[in-house]
Amino acid sequence: MAQPSTESRPAGDLVERMQSGDLDAFEEFFTTYKRQVYATALAITRDPFLAEEILQDCFVKTYKVRERLDSSRSPLPWLQRVAINLCYSRVSRRRHLAEPITSLITNLVVDLAARPEQVVESREVLEVLQRGIDALPPKQQTAIILYYLHGYSLAESAEIARCNVGTMKSRLHYALKALRARLPVERQLPVGGTPATVRASSR
Amino acid sequence: MSCRRICRELLSFVRFGELGARSQPHLDHLAGCASCRDEVGYDREMVQRLRTALAARIEGMNLSPQVWEQILRRAQAPDPEPADGWLGRLGAAAVRRRTTTAMAGTALALVLALNMEVVSIMPAVTTDASMEAAFTDADASDSQRWARPSAVRPTPVTATEVVGPRRVVISPPEIRMSGIVAGLTPPSASDVAPDPAPEVLVVFRSVEPVGHLADDDRLDAGSPAQEEPDDEPEPQPAPSPAEPGQPS
Question: CB B35 to CB A64 under 8 A?
């Protein structure tokens, strides 16, 4: 993934050309950033159609406010922030409906986890993680998507999320802790390790 | 430092790629502590799986080919007008209503909290004997009136009598207001003439509150002559000749 701070000069040129009304520059701008914005939207929503709508909204908004873009800085943090905000404004509306079903499925999966012979372990852990990611608060979800999916540094992630680095570390820490708590106890075994409950009591 | 604390700090170093000279004591501890090794190993394993789960979310992402055309079309479209029409008016009315409700609530709370007495702030105007008499005839209680009856007398310039069966015809709002202040019951919609002439006015004969009027007094849409008496028997249908094959 492209890093927000490394490509600011070409991005600045693009922004200046966009501001002068150059539609080719806008297309180039779109081509440069579409994958990163779409990946963020898709990772949050898990819905390709909704993610594409959000991508459209994001770039339409960019074009409408192009006069206000700062050409001396990379537009990527701003773009990601707009995309993230659009995602959560739409996902929150749908979650009210989806929540009971989600909790039902979660309970079902916990029951299945008690019978490990019926499921493939790695697949199940991934499913549990996916649901765990969905259940995270938006700020923690954003943090793990920026840091672990896009591979942004802590500073870059913090810039996009508009917080300081310490806050970003804290969000990541609590996100991992929450994800870990969702894993069934028998899945909390590292390869060749001791059970987590035993380790905790032995210390 | 306890093992637990070392492990926690070590996890932070590993997660955020901050292993260095500062973390040397932690690494030394790690070399001799199987529990911490398990913990760090498990954390790395979980982060690895988390990366896999996140990558699976965007697996095979493909934008539709027409997305650029759609963006371009939307970007070049003129901005929509600000909300107007019924939706805008409804929103503005809702805001006004909420503001009014909030102000009224605050005022009521103040009144209750300070145990204040609410008094009328209407100006004291000399009463007119004929008006007083008219209001004395009316048996409406004070609670059924909007104001005390002896407040204001409408000027003769703005009020004349209209011939008609106890009909109240109301002229523009300023005259209506003078009638209300004088103690007249506010007119209902049925009392308002559809197309009042500029000089049309208020009849002071009808001083009773609307609630005291019978329905036929309030409504003058149809003349009494057109109404049929209730006790008149319905006309019987003329007997039809018995159809063939049917008993008569």
Answer: no
Query: What is the mean pLDDT of the segment spanning B171-197?
Result: 51
Q: Over 90: is that where the pLDDT of B193 sits?
A: no
Partner B, chain A 36-65, Cβ-Cβ below 8 Å: 38-39, 42-43, 46, 48, 51-52, 55-56, 59-60, 63-64
Scan residues 62-91 of A and list those with Cβ closer than 8 Å to B. 63-64
Quick one: tokens of A50?
A: 């909704």
Domain residue spans in chain B? 3-57, 85-119, 123-219
Taken in order A13, A14, A20, A23, the sign of the CA dihedral is: positive
3-state helix, strand, coil in chain A (%, to 5): 80, 0, 20
Residue the block writes with tokens 């939307």: B74
On the CB side of A141, CA atoms within 13 Å amount to 23
Lowest mean pLDDT: which of A18-22, B80-84, B173-177, B219-223? B219-223
What does pTM read for this prediction? Answer: 0.55
Residue range A8-184, CATH number: 1.10.1740.10
Q: Is the dihedral of CA B38, B44, B46, B48 positive or negative?
A: negative
What pLDDT, in 10s, does the model give residues A64-123? 999 998 888 889 999 999 999 999 988 766 554 444 444 444 444 444 444 445 446 678
